[in-house]
Specification:
Arc Repressor Mutant, subunit A, D-Maltodextrin-Binding Protein, domain 2, 9-stranded mixed beta sheet
């Protein structure tokens, strides 16, 4: 017995013609006829009245079709119930992906605010380069990806079937080590011909898409000399604290260093990039819990925006 036979029987009842029913089932007419004969042999009586055109189901055929449709509906219902049961909050692990600079300080604060409003969830964070996070999202290995947006770049705008919700705000600011008097050791007000050492994200780092246009717009590249590159914000942060140069870093990341006097903001106020932090999902990567999370976050007031920490 093959459950597809019932779909064949239904197609035949709808069309009254073996050829058209075979096309609906995307098989050849001889193969379709053999499958109808197979279900008749399984039941033990004729299910189709072939003596008239269009053909019709016999009373036994109608009875079996109804029973088969009910059985299929029950099977699909039970399958959906099983899938839903395995995605319950007490069993399903919600997986987030984020860039390293988001994962260090913003994500823990945001998750705490979210769980306070929504309720506790079992979750896991995977910090990686944004392209790897997006690749894992497409593969279904992540439920959500958290990424930056700015007026200069939307890093995931080309991701098909994606949706996003705003969950936070931050700023990229130029910072360096302070002098003993608290002023920046690299002062842009100094009009000497010496270039200021720059700590930059690598060209392939997505966060650089939010910085490089700012530097070009303010003609800063002519005043900077790159002395160190790294795709990790944490590595640039360490070098800045050592006094190696100036780095544009998320305010949320360096706020503790500024408060402790290990770093200081330098340059002009307009040399900042305002960042929006968005949570992304793919429309097809859904289950009961992630649908609830998305519906909850879609109402902005449910979880207040987490801003610079």
């Amino acid at each position: 017995m093959d459950y597809i036979w019932f779909r064949d029987l239904d197609n035949l009842a709808c069309t009254g013609n073996f050829s058209r029913a075979a096309k609906l089932g995307n098989i050849s007419q001889p193969a379709f006829s053999r499958r109808i004969k197979a279900i008749e042999n399984w039941v033990g009586v004729s299910l189709v009245d072939r003596s008239q055109q269009p053909v019709v189901l016999t009373s036994a055929g109608k009875q079996m079709l109804e029973a088969g449709q009910q059985a299929l509906a029950r099977l699909e219902t039970e399958r959906n119930h099983i899938r839903e049961a395995h995605s319950l909050p007490d069993k399903y692990i919600v997986t987030f992906g984020a860039q390293h600079s988001i994962g260090w300080r913003f994500y823990p604060a945001w998750l705490q605010a979210f769980e306070h409003a929504f309720g506790p969830i079992i979750s896991r964070l995977r910090t990686d380069d944004l392209p790897n996070c997006l690749k894992d999202l497409k593969a279904g290995e992540l439920d959500f990806v958290i990424a930056y947006n700015s007026e200069y770049s939307n890093s995931v705008i080309t991701l098909p079937n994606s949706q996003s919700v705003l969950i936070g705000q931050d700023r990229l600011i130029p910072v360096c080590k302070p002098r003993s008097d608290g002023l920046p050791i690299f002062d842009f007000e100094n009009k000497t011909s010496l270039k200021i050492p720059s700590l930059r994200f690598g060209a392939n780092a997505p966060i650089s898409e939010h910085i490089e246009p700012l530097l070009e717009a303010n003609n800063l590249n002519n005043r900077l000399s790159v002395v160190y590159e790294n795709s990790m914000a944490g590595a640039l942060r360490i070098r800045a604290r050592e006094g190696i140069g100036v780095a544009w870093l998320p305010k949320s990341l360096v706020a503790p260093d500024i408060e402790a006097g290990l770093l200081v903001q330098t340059g002009e106020a307009i040399w900042e990039t305002k960042l929006e932090i968005h949570l992304y999902r793919l429309h097809g990567n859904l289950n009961q819990l992630t649908r609830k999370i998305w519906a909850f976050l879609s109402v902005r007031e449910s979880v207040p925006l987490v801003t610079e920490l």
